[in-house]
């Protein structure tokens, strides 16, 4: 859809929309053009979420957080405990383990 100001609006973008887009504006005094490229990335999704668990005092627990994401991106994981970010460098109680991001409690 082309808006009144000449802006191109794309909706429901897919991989097939990836490529170069050129805007050309013309009038009786001449023409001008500009080109830009669109790269479409797959969204990051949690495919194995941490689940609610029960544990006994003194026990260890592993909470998974497996994601799928665009192969050109490296997801960054951040864990929160009761709404506050866990600082793994200052909390020996928590540990980030594994290639699939999990948290050991």
Automatic annotation (TrEMBL):
Residues 1-39, 43-105 form the Ig-like domain. Keywords: Immunoglobulin domain. The keyword Secreted does not apply. It comes from the Eukaryota. PROSITE patterns: IG_LIKE. The keyword Nucleotide-binding does not apply. InterPro entries: Ig-like_dom (IPR007110), Ig-like_dom_sf (IPR036179), Ig-like_fold (IPR013783), Ig_I-set (IPR013098), Immunoglobulin_dom (IPR013151). It holds the Pfam family I-set. SUPFAM superfamilies: Immunoglobulin. PANTHER family: BASIGIN RELATED, ROUNDABOUT HOMOLOG 4. This is Contactin-4. The gene is CNTN4_2.
């Amino acid at each position: 859809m082309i808006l009144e100001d000449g802006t191109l609006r794309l909706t429901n973008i897919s991989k097939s929309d990836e490529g170069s887009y050129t805007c050309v504006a013309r009038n009786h005094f001449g023409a001008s053009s500009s080109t830009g490229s669109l790269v479409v990335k797959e969204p990051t999704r949690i495919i194995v979420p941490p689940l609610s668990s029960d544990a006994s005092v003194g026990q260890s627990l592993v909470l998974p957080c497996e994601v799928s994401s665009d192969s050109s991106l490296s997801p960054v994981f951040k864990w929160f405990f009761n709404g506050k970010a866990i600082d793994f460098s200052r909390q020996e109680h928590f540990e980030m383990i594994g290639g699939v991001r999990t948290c050991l409690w």
